Amino acid sequence: MSTKSARGENEKVLTLKGDGIDFDMPLKSGTVGPDVVDIRKLYAKTGKFTYDPGFTSTASCESKITYIDGDKGELMYRGYPIEQLAEKSDFMEVAFLLVYGELPTKTEKEKFIHDITYHTMLHEQLNHFFTGFRRDAHPMAVMVGVVGALAAFYHDSTDISDERQRIIASYRMIAKMPTIAAMAYKYSVGQPFMYPRNDLSYAGNFLHMMFSVPCEEYKVNPILEDAMDMIFTLHADHEQNASTSTVRLAGSSGANPFACISAGCACLWGPAHGGANEAALRMLEEIGTPDRIPEYIARAKDKDDPSA
């Protein structure tokens, strides 16, 4: 590595030498994380490619949204540590932060909640879409199909070159995803769909759509409501993970936002990604009661246990 003067300023460069090559690659520094080597001109200047399966050492874009370091246990949204957001903010504030880059004022939050709340219902014809699936269909299969089908119903928010349409599509996805997820669950257990309620919070409304039934009143447990809101906050964004990268790749072709998110759902389904949460839930069901926890910990540590 060396430092060279460019336009009167010092810049760091990494020099590649060998096989007749002497090429300087700029080093760029982010606000957090390691420096990166800018290789965009590598092929044009040297005729060489890089080889990095899985992008384990490659940043695919510049982002101001999220930073994550799994080894250090660090997660930041727009520069805010997740611990602070989980303690002092709710999911609606976090969603606004991710979309706009700043936490909302009181007035901005009220308007954002209003706009999201009044987009939670699905087009009525989409309700009939579910009947085309088997009752035992995997929920993620249903999510992929229904989310992709949104493009057939909301034509005023499919042009990604239009900033207003992008915002409308974002609002619709934030608002309708819990509705779609709850309907997928209700369909799988043979219960009627429960429409969203505008008087409930984002997390409370999701619990209502999941667990209420028409024949009796359902009161949202505030402890579960707070826990669900925090779960939404913790899972809101995880930087350039597999599903995010899938959405960006699909979006690079100019595909509509709903199709791109559907592709991301398909990727999330994988056992090495969101499917790992499903495996964890199955493990918890298998453990059953707290008194069996030590047994499972011992099995997990036992290298000779085939089920570990």
From TrEMBL:
The keyword Protein transport does not apply. It catalyses: oxaloacetate + acetyl-CoA + H2O = citrate + CoA + H(+). Pathway: Carbohydrate metabolism; tricarboxylic acid cycle; isocitrate from oxaloacetate: step 1/2. One of its GO terms (molecular function) is citrate synthase activity. GO terms for cellular component: cytoplasm. Pfam families: Citrate_synt. GO terms for biological process: tricarboxylic acid cycle. The keyword Transferase applies. NCBIfam families: cit_synth_I, PRK05614.1. This is Citrate synthase.
